[in-house]
Amino acid sequence: MIDHRVLKRAAITLPLVFFPSVSAAQTSAVPPARSVPQGDLEALVRAQAAKIEGLETRLRLLETASSQGSAAAVATTPITAPPLGIQPPPAVLASSQSAETDQTTAKPSGRTYRFAHADAAPPAADPSKTAVKFVNGLPRIASADGKVWFRPRGRLFFDGSATDGSDQGRDISGTSLSSVRLGFEGAVSKMSWALEGDFARNRVVWKSAFVTFRHSLLGLDAETSLGNRFNDRTMDGSAGVGAAQFRNFNAVAGQILPQRGYWGVGVQERVYGSNWHASLQATGEDPNNIGDNNDSFTILSRAHWNPVKSEAATLHLGAWGFREGLPAGATGVVRNASIAGDFNTLVRVLPGTPGAVRSDVGYGLELALVAGRFWTQNEWGRRVLYRDAGNLSHSAYSIDVGAFLFGGRPPYDARRGVWGRTVVDRPVLEGGPGAVSLQARYENIDYSNLPLGGRGQALTLGGNWYLSSIARIMLDVTNWDLDNRAGTTPGKDDGHTLNARFQLQF
Predict the structure, then answer these.
(1) C-alpha angle 183/187/188, rounded to 5°?
(2) Residue 140: its pLDDT value, please?
(3) What percent of the chain has pLDDT over 90?
(4) How many whole angstroms separate alpha carbon 260 and alpha carbon 264?
(5) 22, 41 Cβ separation under 8 angstroms
(6) DSSP helix/strand/coil, 352
(7) CA 493, CA 297: separation in Å to the nearest integer?
């Protein structure tokens, strides 16, 4: 910092020292009439002092602008031209010319031009606070702190099916859009929501339509959901068919279920531990109930535990159960069982006529293992129908095995105990080979304890080619046989069905 008092003394002293010598030199070189008069000399000293005062002012402005990152005050500060042709020191002149050049050549962009000091520069951009990100190929709009976000969601399943070998006229083939779903999801702080509709089987129905509140329960992570949310029931059927390893749910997920199906409007509580989770759900029927009778009322619970959980291997144990109270005159209490895909409705195991059922109870067990690229999933379930004329029951089980050949690993979600989204190492859409998996399933459905109920079994060999984490091509070949005691074509039959699907789920 330059001492202002030193500059002032220099303003008085330098002219007194400098100009007498100049006068002496001029006396010998030019006529005495051209020497500087005493009055002019005093005026020159005062002008020089004013000039130095202006330089002090400019210096103070430069120091302030450097610390605050603003050059506007400096650029607009006038600099008085030196009187009588006296030039300021070269360093000050260069600084003045540079500032004047910046001021006159800068474009009027409306921005404030700042000095190039590190502490005056803006902070570096933080990519994690980008307002719009692309997740699974779609935009996800979020606030800078990430507490508020919104994105679309949906899926498209394009299927082809062909059946051969039947002796009872079940050999049909065709294509279908088995699911066309579109919706939205978002969050505001600890509250999230989802809403989507689905076009399937020539009708549009509401699927996910719920609000979830995240909270803590006894020191554990928990969430409470209100609305129409997918059931937490069986390992295969708790995350939706889009995440299942096969094209369709196994026999346990598809047949040991409440009369109202996979959905129900109500409340659900989930609690998560380090290697387990548990859920409890109380619901009525799904939102497509036409409202001409009482809702059924269902209490459903599921829990899973991972006694072994490591990078090398994860063991899954699970159990679930439900109790459903049915309104008077409820129909469709037991569903026809699909064992060769959902396109060919002729290949079904028929439950017969269970009669009037006032309530039912279902329960099941889960055993799964994921080790490296190998996985196995095994489930068993039983359902009891309570009637005034006597109780009935039916059961099912499924044994699944598979392995990823390359490009990915089994997408087991240890937090919820279900299958998740497959992560592809090198997606096809980015020039890689994608991921390929092979799997096999044996399943058995037994309705024989129901009046005129049938039986069926199927062996399926399948493969998945994951183009990316949101797209895959699926191919299943099922060898099936059934023995129905009801329907238009009772008796035994067998055959094989080829099912293919292009699946896009985002």
Answers:
(1) 145
(2) 86
(3) 61
(4) 7
(5) no
(6) coil
(7) 37
For residues 444 and 276, give the distance between their C-alpha atoms in angstroms, rounded to a whole number.
Answer: 29
Q: For tokens 């500087």, what's the residue?
A: 36
pLDDT at 446 over 90: yes
Q: Tell me which residue of 435, 437, 439 sits closest to 466, measured CA to CA.
A: 435
Distance, CA of 92 to CA of 431 (rounded, Å):
62
Task: Give the chain's count of helices (H) and strands (E).
Answer: 5, 22
Taking only the tens place, the pLDDT of each residue in 173-209 is 999 998 999 999 999 999 999 999 988 777 788 889 9
8 A C-beta contact, residue 359 and residue 389: no
Backbone angles phi, psi at 43, to 5 degrees: -65, -40
Q: Residue 196: count other Cβ atoms within 10 Å of its Cβ.
A: 17
Q: Is 331 exposed, middle or buried (0-12, 13-18, 19+ CB in 10 A)?
A: exposed
Rounded to 5°, the CA angle 460-463-469 comes to 135
Say how many Å lie between the first and final Cα of the chain, rounded.
Answer: 64
pLDDT band at 101 (very low <50, low <70, confident <90, very high): very low
Helices (H), 275-387: none
Angle at 379 between CA 374 and CA 384, to 5 degrees: 175
**Residue appearing with tokens 């072994």:** 308
- Per-residue pLDDT tens digits for 280-331: 999 998 787 666 778 899 999 999 999 999 999 999 999 999 999 998 888 8
Structure tokens at 239: 């995350």
Question: Which 3-state string (H, E, C) describes 210-260?
Answer: EEEEEEEECCEEEEEEEEECCCCCCCCCCCCHHHCCCCCCCHHHHHCCCCC
| Phi-psi label, residue 136: left if phi above 0, alpha if psi -120 to 50, beta otherwise | left
Output the CA–CA distances (angstroms, integers) from residue 368 to 241, 374, 400, 445, in the order listed. Answer: 18, 11, 9, 20
For residue 390, the number of C-alpha atoms closer than 13 Å in the C-beta half-sphere is 5
**Strand 173-188, strand 148-164: pairing:** antiparallel
Closest by Cα among 55, 67, 65, 66 to 95: 55
Tokens found for residue 408? 């990915």
- Flag whether pLDDT at 503 surpasses 70: yes
The pLDDT value given to residue 13: 46
Query: How far apart are alpha carbons 199 and 246 in whole angstroms?
Result: 21
The closest of 377, 128, 352 to 235, measured between CA atoms, is 377
Choose between 385 and 4: higher pLDDT.
Answer: 385
Residues 195 and 201: beta-carbon distance below 8 Å: no
One-letter amino acid at 292 equals D
Residues present in the chain in total: 506
Picking from 484, 441, 382, the residue whose alpha carbon sits closest to that of residue 249 is: 441
pLDDT tens for residues 104-114? Answer: 333 333 332 23
